[in-house]
Design a protein that fits this description.
Domain FAD-binding PCMH-type: 48-240
Cofactor: FAD
Number of helices: 16
Largest sheet: 8 strands, antiparallel
Distance between the termini: 31 Å
CATH topology of the largest domain: Vanillyl-alcohol Oxidase, Chain A, domain 3
CATH superfamily of the largest domain: FAD-linked oxidases, C-terminal domain
Keywords: FAD, Flavoprotein, Oxidoreductase
Number of strands: 19
Structural class: alpha+beta
GO molecular function, one term: D-lactate dehydrogenase (NAD+) activity
CATH architecture of the largest domain: 3-Layer(aba) Sandwich
Shape: globular
InterPro entries: Cytok_DH_C_sf, FAD-bd_oxidored_4_C, FAD-bd_PCMH, FAD-bd_PCMH-like_sf, FAD-bd_PCMH_sub1, FAD-bd_PCMH_sub2, FAD-linked_Oxase-like_C, Oxid_FAD_bind_N
Number of domains: 3
Low-confidence stretches: none
């Protein structure tokens, strides 16, 4: 990289940065310190509506051990070099592998990819951050272990550690990923290592089975934060059930979302339906395999008439509920009768499983795979819906109440329509909460459309917050704005923790709006 192209970390002199790079090369080897433009190109790709020049790293570091990470952060403290940590770098929709700001050094942990332990008796795993879902899945299959994973939708190339740390979700009964995490190894900003939960006991046999340990529980501090670098994580895996029945329920009217949620909520809370259910809108269900231009070539939001044609052609509903039953065949038959009775009461629902569901047009095949811990990349098809490489996931939370869900749906459609974008969305139902995931798809090659997408996303954040709806995740472009919606007292606590744990502010500055 020539001198004119060189980007330095903010506040770091060229002399100090050269000294830091030399130290990094001593720690991990020259081949694992990337500084050339072509080497750094993979870390500059973004799908969000920000200026790409705001997300260019000054270097990338590829360690392979916890000890190397310790030495790297000690060097960063000495030279005040900020690092931005990624695991597999496949956090698509939320920022991908780019740094939080130009000049930061990427700490890329994808080479730390060892499966350290899988215990089929207590159904646990201990992993490094570079392990992908596909790698763990293959390990389980190769060793004939009767265990299931819980991957997110576009999952094979992503990793359990990074997804859990960002509090991602999946679709089996283990769908709330952080709930099923147990024990971490964390490198702090001063280079020290701590093990959370029972991990502080030497030779502990219960590190991956008892979450709480002794004293204050701190694992949550290292999720969606920049207080430390997680180098090992324990997970609970689901034992393979004796029987499994995925099913599909379709509703045809937009207002039916209210009934769906109110019928579903007690079934989820009572664990009649034990998995993380998704309620998928027409455009998300069709968008994984249908091109928008085949139904509408306008630049504004897609009209109702086109949506109705998609529904008719594809055999899908306005709302498409994907859920599953697990257990013995006898348990499944009992619970199936309860589901049929609950959703059949109004006469609006079409309830299907097996061959009947497989013949419908939407995503039953890949949803069925996800709900049993298998994976595929079909959901990446959404990026072809509008084309142009732009995607931002807007993800507010609501109660699992029909009135709130209808309110969120109408508000989102109103704001998206104002800016000319489509409502490509789904609800993911937890036990009592719902994640409303909206994929704001746009053409990043069009500067005017990119600006509209940026303005639209910003308005979505503000208007949803005014009605009491906060986001559970966001991309790096909007972390500061989202953090602001949660109030200054909470942000002051975050800052206080940051200053205590990372006084030089070297770890992922700006992550979740947290700075020293």
């Amino acid at each position: 990289m020539s001198t004119t192209q060189r980007i330095l970390p903010k506040g770091v002199s060229e002399t100090d940065f050269d000294a830091a790079l030399s130290r990094f090369r001593e720690i991990i080897g020259a081949g694992s310190v990337l500084t050339e433009s072509d080497q750094l190109a993979p870390y500059t790709k973004i799908m969000m509506a920000g200026d790409q020049s705001d997300y260019i790293p000054s270097a990338a570091l590829l360690p392979t051990t916890t000890e190397q990470v310790q030495e790297i952060v000690r060097a960063c403290n000495e030279y005040k070099v900020p690092i931005w940590t990624i695991s597999t770098g496949k956090n698509l929709g939320y920022g991908s592998a780019a740094p939080g700001a130009t000049g930061q050094v990427m700490l890329d942990l994808h080479r730390m990819n060892r499966i350290l332990n899988v215990d089929p008796e207590v159904c646990t795993a201990l992993l490094e951050p570079g392990v992908t879902y596909q790698q763990l899945y293959d390990y389980i299959k190769e060793n004939d272990l009767k265990l299931w994973l819980d991957p997110p939708a576009p999952s094979a190339i992503a990793g359990p550690v990074g997804n859990t740390l960002d509090r991602g979700v999946g679709y089996t009964p283990y769908g709330e990923h952080f709930m099923f995490q147990c024990g971490m190894e964390v490198v702090l900003a001063n280079g020290e290592v701590i093990r959370t939960g029972m991990g502080g006991i030497e030779n502990s046999s219960s590190w991956q089975v008892f979450k709480w340990g002794y004293g204050p529980y701190i694992d949550g501090l290292f999720t969606q934060s920049n207080y430390g670098i997680v180098t090992k994580m324990g997970l609970w895996l689901m034992p393979e059930p004796p029987a499994y029945r995925p099913f599909l329920i379709q509703y045809q009217d937009p207002e039916d979302i209210e009934e769906i949620v109110d019928v579903l909520r007690p079934l989820r809370i009572a664990q009649i339906i034990p998995n993380a259910v998704v309620i998928v809108h027409t455009l998300w269900d069709a968008g994984t395999h249908v091109m928008r231009r085949d139904y509408y070539d306008g630049t504004d939001s897609i009209p109702r008439e086109a949506i109705e044609r998609i529904k008719a052609d594809e055999g899908i509903g306005e709302w498409n509920v994907y859920a599953a039953l697990y257990g013995t065949p006898e348990q499944i038959e009992v619970n199936w009768k309860i589901v049929e009775q609950a959703f059949g009461a109004s006469g609006k629902a079409k309830i299907m499983y097996g061959e009947e569901a497989e013949k419908r047009g939407g995503g039953f095949e890949y949803r069925s795979a996800l709900m049993k811990g298998d994976m595929n990349l079909q959901e990446f098809g959404l990026y072809n819906w509008r084309g142009g490489g732009g995607s931002m996931w807007f993800a507010p939370v609501s109660q699992a109440k029909g009135s709130e869900t209808r309110d969120q749906t109408e508000l989102a459609q109103q704001i998206l329509g104002k800016y000319g974008f489509d409502y490509v969305a789904e609800y993911i139902v937890g036990w009592r909460d719902m994640h409303h995931v909206i994929d704001l798809l746009y053409n990043r090659q069009d500067p005017e459309e990119t600006q509209r997408a940026h303005d639209c996303f910003a308005e979505l954040i503000d208007e949803f917050a005014k009605r009491g709806y906060g986001l559970y995740r966001t991309n790096t472009e909007f972390m500061e704005q989202v953090a602001g919606t949660f109030g200054d007292p909470l942000r002051e606590v975050h800052r206080t923790l940051k200053n205590a744990l990372d006084p030089n502010g070297i770890l992922s500055p700006g992550k979740s709006g947290i700075r020293s």
